[in-house]
Structures are given as structure tokens and as C-alpha cells.
Specification:
The chain is globular. The protein is α/β, with parallel strands linked by helices.
């Protein structure tokens, strides 16, 4: 029985074409004797969050349904250009037992035992370093914006005298809760789920994790 796989292609602009990606990956599937059961494409910037990308959401939904065992991509940038979002996507797919094959690397993210491969460990470590730099840049921009807002007497943050119930707070950070339950450290969750250190610490405290 052939292994069911999904092909995932992405381009950034409506004027661009992903047919070359699909054609190349179909040839890969034929060579490796895979059965292509789904072809998912999207035209959107890879810098967008996973939640904003309909193609990624369809990919995750079909993965949860067990429609395929592997995903074929021409390169990792097709999954996304935001390192933190890409790490989250890889982590979620791996939790579902889905391996991703990258054509340019000619390798998969999971080995035959379903474990993260050595190449993937190197790749994710590099992505984590890049994600850290992304986050530091973002924090710097946010702080600069907040300082400018305060200088203009504009209130930043949650409205004064407002409160939020614990269950409502935890429901907003379900992935962080899941990560902490899996044994990820606070700092690992910060990198994987692109949230602040304070937020993860609060989730850990409120959820008794």
C-alpha cells in the first residue's frame, strides 16, 4: 500500500505561479512511490501568522483527520518565512506524527521511527536562533512605539480597572498550556509559540503547570 502524502505549495503574490512547485513534487511522489491524496496551495506572504493562512489551516485540519502521513514541500520557506510560526507549525505536525519532506534538502523531518531526525534538530536550532533575533527586533519596535505613545499621553495596554477570568486567559493560550504539559520549559514555549516570557509564566502559574 502506497504512503498517502499531501503536496503543499505557496507563493507570495497573486501574480506568481506555484505550478512548478506542484509539478516538481508530483515527480518526487512518483519516484518515492507515494500516493498524492491532497494538493494544498496558497497565495499569501509567508510572514503572515499561521492563523491568517487558509492553506496552513487546511493542511493542519487534514493532518488532524489522518488524511496523509507525509507532506511534500520544495523548501522550508514554502511553509513560512516567520521562523517562530514555522517552528510552531513543524511542532504541531510532528505531534500528529506527520513528517515533512523538503525537496531541496532531500530529507524528512522525522525518521522511520517517527523521531525527529538529526538534520531536523540542526534546522530547528537554527530557526530558533533566527526566531530569537526576530523577537528581539519586534520587542524593540514595540517598546519604541509604546514610548512614543506615552510621550503623546496615549494609554497602552489593558484598559484600567479591567479584569480577566483565569479560564478565559488560559483559553487564549491553549498551545502554551499544551507545550507546558508536554514538558517544554518556559523559554522554549516563548520561542515556539511567539509569546512573551511574562505570558508563559502567567499561564504556568494560573494553570498550575
Amino acid at each position: 500500500m502506497k504512503t498517502p502524502v499531501a503536496i503543499f505549495g505557496r507563493v507570495s503574490l497573486d501574480s506568481m505561479d506555484f505550478q512548478r512547485q506542484i509539478s516538481d513534487l508530483k515527480k518526487v511522489a512518483d519516484k518515492l512511490d507515494y500516493e498524492v491524496v491532497s494538493i494544498i496551495t496558497e497565495k499569501i506572504s509567508g510572514a503572515k501568522s499561521n492563523k491568517e493562512r487558509l492553506g496552513v489551516q487546511q493542511l493542519l485540519e487534514e493532518a488532524r483527520q489522518g488524511k496523509f502521513k507525509k507532506i511534500l514541500c520544495t523548501e522550508i520557506s514554502r511553509l513560512g518565512r516567520s521562523n517562530t510560526q514555522t517552528l510552531c507549525l513543524l511542532d504541531e505536525l510532528h505531534q500528529l506524527g506527520i513528517s515533512i519532506y523538503f525537496q531541496d534538502l532531500n530529507s524528512e523531518t522525522l525518521n522511520e521511527k517517527g523521531e525527529v531526525s538529526f538534520q531536523t534538530e540542526i534546522l530547528t536550532n537554527l530557526l530558533s536562533l533566527f526566531a530569537k533575533n526576530e523577537r528581539q527586533t519586534l520587542i524593540s519596535r514595540i517598546r519604541s512605539g509604546m514610548q512614543q505613545a506615552k510621550a503623546n499621553n496615549i494609554h497602552c495596554g489593558r484598559p484600567k480597572n479591567s479584569s480577566e477570568k483565569n479560564d478565559q486567559f488560559l483559553s487564549k493560550y491553549q498551545k502554551v498550556v499544551f507545550g507546558l504539559k508536554r514538558g517544554y520549559s518556559v523559554r522554549e514555549c516563548v520561542k515556539l509559540y511567539d509569546v512573551s516570557l511574562g505570558t508563559v509564566a502567567k499561564v504556568k502559574k494560573v494553570g498550575n503547570l
